[in-house]
Amino acid sequence: MTCSAHLGHFSPGSVLFSSLAAAYLGIKLEEPRRVQALLLSMLRLAAEVAFAALQHGGVLPEGLHRAQVPLFAVSLAGVVWMARRYGLLFLGFQPISCKHGSGGSAQGIDDHKFRTALSCLAASLTRFVMFGSIGSAASFIFSWGRRIDPRPGLFLGSFGAVYSLTRCILRLRSSRQAWHDPAAALLAGLCLALWPSPRLTLYFAFKFLEVCYNRGEEAGILPSGSEGTHSALFAICCGVLLTVGVLQPHLVRPSYRAFIDRVIGRRMRFINVPAIATLGYGTTSIVPDVPITMPELDPRFVSRRYKETLWVWAQ
Length: 315
Hints:
By secondary structure, the chain is mainly α. It has twelve helices and no strands.
């Protein structure tokens, strides 16, 4: 109510600052060891929502989504490189069986390499079938058996096959090198074009930044974040998520909308959609039957200056 009195009942700032204060006080009740995990999760959610809001508002240029495939490939390669270099366990990447031996003659070496190349191809085809089946089965289960989306299966199958084949061929040309895994991951990451997923791209991008920051923090190059900094960042992310979820719910995933509705006490149905639509947020796209009209502003909750500004802008 304090934010509404000072900023106006329909001001976006009332939602933002109220959620900032509530999230900051709420995160203080959490244990310090859980704050960082919650912060990383909320950073990914807030980045996804903020990107959608900025693109919808025309701040970001159209076609920027095309960069998600190279961003995913580079982020994945970076994560794999960090995992191999510092001995981190990530997604259980295992060495691919690709044995090398020494023949007694040049013809024997060529035959051995040919057989090994065939084994690499066979292994990649096996992984295509295995990962493709997993992706198709997951798509069928998550859709409750209504339909099967072939794209997840194609992506996972192609990803596993390209990673396996590239890594095995690189080992044929030379001995095992540290850059083989990142190179294979870089090429395999391009398979995301078969199933574009901004959510997956943001996850690996933030995972790469997290790993890099942790290594820099351990080396003393980057500063160590304090508890207050983590709490402030968490509050900002929650503020962005709640503000966009209330004012522009059509830009938020249905699962996020359900989460926001639970957080605010099942009050999403009480939101004045025509009032928000008048401000130019396009909220009526989720409620097409609601007419876009200027609401009757109650002077008890709306300042005269804000009401005059809103009337002039709306006309």
